[in-house]
Amino acid sequence: MIPDLLNTRGRKQMILLLILALLSPLNWAKEAAPVAEDPVIEKRMLALSEDLRCLVCQNESLAGSRADFANDLRREIREQLKEGKKDQEIIDFLVARYGDFVLYNPPMKPTTYLLWIGPFAFLLIGAAILFFYLKMRRRQIEEPSLTDDQHRHAESLLKDDKGNNA
Amino acid sequence: MRFLLPLAAFIVLVGFLAVGLGLKPREIPSPLVGKPAPVFQSPRLHEPDQILSSKDNLGKVWLLNVWASWCVSCREEHPLLVELSKSGIVPIYGLNYKDKPELALQWLGQYGDPYTVSVVDPEGRIGIDYGVYGVPETYVIDKDGVIRHKQIGPVTIESLEKKILPLIKELQG
After folding, report:
1. Which residues of A touch B129 (CB under 8 A)?
2. Is B55 in contact with B145 (CB distance < 8 Å)?
3. Helix pair A39-50, A68-82: axis angle to 10 deg
4. A92 and chain B: CB distance < 8 Å anywhere?
5. What's the pTM?
6. Which fold has domain A36-107?
7. Domain containing B162 — which CATH number?
8. What is the pLDDT of residues B5-56, one digit of tens each?
9. Most buried residue, A151, B19, B101, B124, by CB count within 10 Å?
10. What percent of chain B has pLDDT over 90?
11. What is the DSSP string of A82-113?
12. What's the burial of B82, exposed, middle or buried (CB within 10 Å: 0-12/13-18/19+)?
Protein backbone atom coordinates (compact mmCIF):
# COMPACT_ATOMS: atom_id res chain seq x y z
CA MET A 1 0.00 0.00 0.00
CA ILE A 2 2.61 2.57 1.10
CA PRO A 3 5.25 1.89 -1.60
CA ASP A 4 2.37 2.08 -4.03
CA LEU A 5 1.85 5.73 -3.13
CA LEU A 6 5.35 6.54 -4.32
CA ASN A 7 4.86 5.51 -7.93
CA THR A 8 3.27 7.86 -10.43
CA ARG A 9 -0.12 6.22 -10.47
CA GLY A 10 -0.39 6.41 -6.72
CA ARG A 11 0.65 10.03 -6.72
CA LYS A 12 -1.96 10.90 -9.33
CA GLN A 13 -4.61 9.26 -7.23
CA MET A 14 -3.42 11.18 -4.20
CA ILE A 15 -3.69 14.48 -6.04
CA LEU A 16 -7.15 13.57 -7.28
CA LEU A 17 -8.21 12.72 -3.75
CA LEU A 18 -6.82 16.00 -2.48
CA ILE A 19 -8.72 17.95 -5.11
CA LEU A 20 -11.91 16.10 -4.20
CA ALA A 21 -11.37 16.82 -0.53
CA LEU A 22 -10.85 20.49 -1.28
CA LEU A 23 -13.94 20.64 -3.45
CA SER A 24 -16.38 19.12 -1.00
CA PRO A 25 -16.60 22.08 1.45
CA LEU A 26 -17.66 24.23 -1.46
CA ASN A 27 -20.45 21.80 -2.21
CA TRP A 28 -21.61 21.92 1.38
CA ALA A 29 -21.70 25.68 1.35
CA LYS A 30 -23.89 25.62 -1.70
CA GLU A 31 -26.34 23.23 -0.09
CA ALA A 32 -26.85 25.44 2.95
CA ALA A 33 -27.74 28.55 0.95
CA PRO A 34 -30.79 30.29 2.41
CA VAL A 35 -33.93 29.83 0.39
CA ALA A 36 -36.09 32.49 2.01
CA GLU A 37 -38.02 35.13 0.17
CA ASP A 38 -37.50 37.58 3.00
CA PRO A 39 -33.92 37.63 4.32
CA VAL A 40 -34.79 39.78 7.35
CA ILE A 41 -37.50 37.39 8.55
CA GLU A 42 -35.24 34.45 7.80
CA LYS A 43 -32.48 35.94 9.89
CA ARG A 44 -34.81 36.55 12.83
CA MET A 45 -36.29 33.08 12.46
CA LEU A 46 -32.82 31.52 12.53
CA ALA A 47 -31.74 33.60 15.53
CA LEU A 48 -34.89 32.52 17.38
CA SER A 49 -34.66 28.87 16.47
CA GLU A 50 -31.00 28.66 17.53
CA ASP A 51 -32.22 28.84 21.12
CA LEU A 52 -35.05 26.37 20.68
CA ARG A 53 -34.77 22.64 20.95
CA CYS A 54 -36.07 20.23 18.36
CA LEU A 55 -38.18 17.82 20.39
CA VAL A 56 -37.71 14.97 17.98
CA CYS A 57 -33.93 15.01 17.85
CA GLN A 58 -33.52 16.59 21.32
CA ASN A 59 -29.84 17.38 20.98
CA GLU A 60 -30.30 19.62 17.98
CA SER A 61 -31.66 23.11 17.83
CA LEU A 62 -34.67 23.92 15.69
CA ALA A 63 -32.35 25.87 13.43
CA GLY A 64 -29.97 22.99 12.90
CA SER A 65 -32.37 20.08 12.60
CA ARG A 66 -33.52 18.57 9.36
CA ALA A 67 -36.37 16.69 10.97
CA ASP A 68 -39.80 17.21 9.49
CA PHE A 69 -41.00 18.44 12.85
CA ALA A 70 -38.34 21.17 12.96
CA ASN A 71 -39.30 22.18 9.45
CA ASP A 72 -42.92 22.63 10.50
CA LEU A 73 -41.98 24.69 13.52
CA ARG A 74 -39.64 26.86 11.47
CA ARG A 75 -42.51 27.48 9.07
CA GLU A 76 -44.75 28.37 12.00
CA ILE A 77 -42.15 30.81 13.39
CA ARG A 78 -41.64 32.35 9.95
CA GLU A 79 -45.38 32.87 9.53
CA GLN A 80 -45.80 34.39 12.95
CA LEU A 81 -42.89 36.75 12.33
CA LYS A 82 -44.53 37.82 9.10
CA GLU A 83 -47.69 38.57 11.06
CA GLY A 84 -45.57 40.98 13.07
CA LYS A 85 -45.34 39.01 16.30
CA LYS A 86 -42.54 39.75 18.73
CA ASP A 87 -39.88 37.14 19.52
CA GLN A 88 -41.14 36.75 23.08
CA GLU A 89 -44.70 36.13 21.86
CA ILE A 90 -43.50 33.31 19.64
CA ILE A 91 -41.43 31.79 22.43
CA ASP A 92 -44.49 31.94 24.71
CA PHE A 93 -46.56 30.29 21.96
CA LEU A 94 -44.13 27.38 21.74
CA VAL A 95 -43.67 27.02 25.51
CA ALA A 96 -47.45 26.87 25.95
CA ARG A 97 -47.52 23.86 23.62
CA TYR A 98 -44.26 22.04 24.23
CA GLY A 99 -43.25 23.20 27.69
CA ASP A 100 -39.95 24.60 28.93
CA PHE A 101 -38.25 21.69 27.25
CA VAL A 102 -38.16 23.59 23.94
CA LEU A 103 -36.00 26.26 25.53
CA TYR A 104 -32.26 25.83 25.56
CA ASN A 105 -32.25 28.63 28.09
CA PRO A 106 -34.84 27.55 30.64
CA PRO A 107 -36.36 30.07 33.09
CA MET A 108 -35.45 30.11 36.78
CA LYS A 109 -38.25 28.47 38.76
CA PRO A 110 -38.62 25.80 41.47
CA THR A 111 -38.34 22.89 39.02
CA THR A 112 -35.18 24.29 37.47
CA TYR A 113 -33.40 25.46 40.63
CA LEU A 114 -31.29 22.31 40.69
CA LEU A 115 -30.37 22.86 37.06
CA TRP A 116 -29.28 26.45 37.62
CA ILE A 117 -27.78 26.23 41.09
CA GLY A 118 -26.61 22.60 41.03
CA PRO A 119 -23.26 23.17 39.32
CA PHE A 120 -22.33 25.97 41.73
CA ALA A 121 -23.45 23.88 44.70
CA PHE A 122 -21.25 21.02 43.52
CA LEU A 123 -18.36 23.43 43.02
CA LEU A 124 -18.79 24.70 46.58
CA ILE A 125 -19.00 21.18 48.00
CA GLY A 126 -15.91 20.19 46.04
CA ALA A 127 -14.01 23.26 47.22
CA ALA A 128 -15.00 22.57 50.82
CA ILE A 129 -13.86 18.95 50.57
CA LEU A 130 -10.56 20.05 49.03
CA PHE A 131 -10.06 22.69 51.74
CA PHE A 132 -10.63 20.31 54.63
CA TYR A 133 -8.62 17.54 52.99
CA LEU A 134 -5.62 19.83 52.53
CA LYS A 135 -5.92 21.05 56.11
CA MET A 136 -6.00 17.50 57.40
CA ARG A 137 -3.05 16.52 55.25
CA ARG A 138 -0.96 19.43 56.44
CA ARG A 139 -1.54 18.32 60.01
CA GLN A 140 -0.52 14.77 59.10
CA ILE A 141 2.74 15.71 57.43
CA GLU A 142 3.69 18.32 60.01
CA GLU A 143 7.26 17.67 61.13
CA PRO A 144 7.53 15.79 64.39
CA SER A 145 8.39 18.12 67.25
CA LEU A 146 11.84 17.97 68.85
CA THR A 147 12.56 15.68 71.73
CA ASP A 148 13.55 17.29 75.02
CA ASP A 149 17.19 16.49 74.43
CA GLN A 150 17.19 18.07 70.98
CA HIS A 151 15.34 21.05 72.38
CA ARG A 152 17.98 21.67 75.02
CA HIS A 153 20.70 21.24 72.47
CA ALA A 154 19.07 23.73 70.13
CA GLU A 155 18.59 26.22 72.93
CA SER A 156 22.21 25.97 73.94
CA LEU A 157 23.27 26.52 70.34
CA LEU A 158 21.04 29.60 70.16
CA LYS A 159 22.44 30.94 73.40
CA ASP A 160 25.95 30.47 72.06
CA ASP A 161 24.96 32.34 68.95
CA LYS A 162 23.51 35.19 70.94
CA GLY A 163 26.69 35.36 73.07
CA ASN A 164 28.87 35.61 69.99
CA ASN A 165 26.85 38.41 68.51
CA ALA A 166 26.74 40.47 71.64
CA MET B 1 -11.96 1.56 55.85
CA ARG B 2 -9.80 2.72 52.95
CA PHE B 3 -12.27 1.29 50.47
CA LEU B 4 -15.40 2.46 52.23
CA LEU B 5 -15.49 5.91 50.66
CA PRO B 6 -14.90 4.76 47.05
CA LEU B 7 -17.45 2.00 47.58
CA ALA B 8 -20.03 4.46 48.88
CA ALA B 9 -19.33 6.78 45.93
CA PHE B 10 -19.68 3.83 43.56
CA ILE B 11 -23.02 2.81 45.05
CA VAL B 12 -24.33 6.36 44.77
CA LEU B 13 -23.19 6.48 41.15
CA VAL B 14 -24.87 3.17 40.37
CA GLY B 15 -28.02 4.49 42.01
CA PHE B 16 -28.04 7.55 39.78
CA LEU B 17 -27.40 5.46 36.69
CA ALA B 18 -30.17 3.02 37.59
CA VAL B 19 -32.64 5.89 37.93
CA GLY B 20 -31.34 7.35 34.66
CA LEU B 21 -31.97 4.08 32.85
CA GLY B 22 -35.60 4.18 33.92
CA LEU B 23 -36.18 7.71 32.68
CA LYS B 24 -37.81 8.25 29.32
CA PRO B 25 -36.23 11.34 27.80
CA ARG B 26 -38.58 11.07 24.83
CA GLU B 27 -41.60 11.59 27.04
CA ILE B 28 -41.72 15.27 27.74
CA PRO B 29 -44.53 16.23 30.10
CA SER B 30 -47.06 18.28 28.21
CA PRO B 31 -47.94 21.70 29.61
CA LEU B 32 -51.38 21.22 28.02
CA VAL B 33 -52.54 18.63 30.56
CA GLY B 34 -55.16 20.34 32.70
CA LYS B 35 -55.74 23.02 30.07
CA PRO B 36 -58.61 23.29 27.58
CA ALA B 37 -57.94 21.26 24.46
CA PRO B 38 -57.12 23.54 21.53
CA VAL B 39 -60.17 24.00 19.33
CA PHE B 40 -59.93 22.76 15.76
CA GLN B 41 -62.18 22.67 12.76
CA SER B 42 -61.01 20.35 10.09
CA PRO B 43 -62.36 18.28 7.20
CA ARG B 44 -63.20 14.68 7.89
CA LEU B 45 -61.02 12.04 6.31
CA HIS B 46 -63.91 10.03 4.90
CA GLU B 47 -66.12 12.99 3.94
CA PRO B 48 -63.73 15.85 3.10
CA ASP B 49 -66.64 18.20 2.41
CA GLN B 50 -67.78 17.91 6.02
CA ILE B 51 -66.05 19.81 8.80
CA LEU B 52 -65.70 18.46 12.31
CA SER B 53 -65.32 20.91 15.15
CA SER B 54 -63.76 19.76 18.39
CA LYS B 55 -66.47 21.79 20.13
CA ASP B 56 -69.02 19.22 18.97
CA ASN B 57 -67.49 16.85 21.50
CA LEU B 58 -68.24 19.01 24.53
CA GLY B 59 -70.25 17.07 27.08
CA LYS B 60 -68.57 13.73 26.52
CA VAL B 61 -65.30 12.11 27.38
CA TRP B 62 -63.33 11.28 24.26
CA LEU B 63 -59.93 10.20 23.06
CA LEU B 64 -57.98 12.04 20.41
CA ASN B 65 -55.50 9.71 18.77
CA VAL B 66 -52.87 11.22 16.48
CA TRP B 67 -51.97 8.76 13.75
CA ALA B 68 -50.56 8.47 10.25
CA SER B 69 -50.17 5.76 7.67
CA TRP B 70 -46.40 6.39 7.60
CA CYS B 71 -46.13 5.92 11.35
CA VAL B 72 -44.72 2.52 12.20
CA SER B 73 -45.54 2.51 15.93
CA CYS B 74 -49.16 3.35 15.08
CA ARG B 75 -49.47 -0.17 13.72
CA GLU B 76 -48.34 -1.45 17.09
CA GLU B 77 -51.14 0.21 19.05
CA HIS B 78 -53.80 -0.09 16.37
CA PRO B 79 -55.26 -3.50 17.34
CA LEU B 80 -55.75 -2.19 20.87
CA LEU B 81 -57.60 0.85 19.59
CA VAL B 82 -59.82 -1.32 17.38
CA GLU B 83 -60.65 -3.47 20.37
CA LEU B 84 -61.31 -0.43 22.55
CA SER B 85 -63.67 1.05 19.98
CA LYS B 86 -65.55 -2.26 19.76
CA SER B 87 -66.04 -2.23 23.51
CA GLY B 88 -67.84 1.10 23.17
CA ILE B 89 -66.31 2.46 26.36
CA VAL B 90 -65.14 5.70 24.84
CA PRO B 91 -65.33 7.31 21.40
CA ILE B 92 -61.95 7.59 19.69
CA TYR B 93 -61.40 10.47 17.32
CA GLY B 94 -58.48 10.29 14.95
CA LEU B 95 -56.21 13.11 13.91
CA ASN B 96 -54.66 12.02 10.66
CA TYR B 97 -51.36 13.85 10.97
CA LYS B 98 -49.35 14.92 7.92
CA ASP B 99 -50.69 12.17 5.76
CA LYS B 100 -52.12 11.69 2.29
CA PRO B 101 -55.87 10.91 2.44
CA GLU B 102 -55.66 8.08 -0.07
CA LEU B 103 -52.86 6.37 1.88
CA ALA B 104 -54.68 6.98 5.17
CA LEU B 105 -57.91 5.43 3.86
CA GLN B 106 -56.02 2.47 2.47
CA TRP B 107 -54.29 2.00 5.82
CA LEU B 108 -57.59 2.04 7.71
CA GLY B 109 -59.00 -0.47 5.21
CA GLN B 110 -56.08 -2.76 5.90
CA TYR B 111 -55.82 -2.54 9.69
CA GLY B 112 -59.39 -1.61 10.67
CA ASP B 113 -60.97 1.73 11.54
CA PRO B 114 -61.47 2.34 15.27
CA TYR B 115 -62.30 6.02 14.82
CA THR B 116 -65.72 7.57 15.27
CA VAL B 117 -64.39 10.28 12.98
CA SER B 118 -60.94 11.01 11.67
CA VAL B 119 -60.05 14.56 10.74
CA VAL B 120 -57.15 15.50 8.53
CA ASP B 121 -54.21 17.69 9.45
CA PRO B 122 -52.12 17.58 6.28
CA GLU B 123 -49.70 20.32 7.33
CA GLY B 124 -49.46 19.41 10.98
CA ARG B 125 -51.00 22.69 12.17
CA ILE B 126 -53.48 21.14 14.59
CA GLY B 127 -50.54 19.00 15.69
CA ILE B 128 -48.56 22.09 16.65
CA ASP B 129 -51.51 23.39 18.69
CA TYR B 130 -51.63 20.11 20.58
CA GLY B 131 -47.88 19.99 21.06
CA VAL B 132 -47.54 16.84 18.97
CA TYR B 133 -43.92 15.93 18.33
CA GLY B 134 -43.99 12.19 17.89
CA VAL B 135 -46.77 10.07 16.50
CA PRO B 136 -48.68 8.23 17.86
CA GLU B 137 -49.96 10.39 20.67
CA THR B 138 -53.26 10.02 22.49
CA TYR B 139 -55.12 12.62 24.50
CA VAL B 140 -57.88 11.99 27.04
CA ILE B 141 -60.30 14.92 26.93
CA ASP B 142 -63.06 15.38 29.47
CA LYS B 143 -66.66 16.65 29.25
CA ASP B 144 -65.56 20.25 29.65
CA GLY B 145 -63.08 19.91 26.83
CA VAL B 146 -60.05 19.85 29.12
CA ILE B 147 -57.06 17.62 28.35
CA ARG B 148 -56.64 15.26 31.28
CA HIS B 149 -53.90 12.98 30.06
CA LYS B 150 -51.46 12.69 27.21
CA GLN B 151 -49.99 9.40 26.15
CA ILE B 152 -46.80 9.82 24.17
CA GLY B 153 -45.97 6.91 21.93
CA PRO B 154 -48.13 3.87 21.32
CA VAL B 155 -50.94 2.95 23.68
CA THR B 156 -50.11 -0.33 25.42
CA ILE B 157 -52.21 -2.78 27.40
CA GLU B 158 -50.39 -1.59 30.50
CA SER B 159 -51.01 2.11 29.89
CA LEU B 160 -54.65 1.37 29.05
CA GLU B 161 -55.32 -0.65 32.17
CA LYS B 162 -53.27 1.38 34.58
CA LYS B 163 -53.98 4.92 33.45
CA ILE B 164 -56.32 5.54 30.55
CA LEU B 165 -59.29 3.29 31.35
CA PRO B 166 -59.47 4.17 35.09
CA LEU B 167 -59.22 7.85 34.17
CA ILE B 168 -62.03 7.55 31.62
CA LYS B 169 -64.21 5.78 34.17
CA GLU B 170 -63.55 8.51 36.68
CA LEU B 171 -64.29 11.27 34.17
CA GLN B 172 -67.47 9.63 32.91
CA GLY B 173 -68.80 8.98 36.42
Report:
1. 97
2. yes
3. 130
4. no
5. 0.73
6. Helicase, Ruva Protein; domain 3 (1.10.8)
7. 3.40.30.10
8. 899 999 999 999 999 898 887 788 888 999 999 999 999 999 999 999 999 9
9. B124
10. 88
11. HTT--HHHHHHHHHHHH-GGGBSS---SGGGH
12. middle
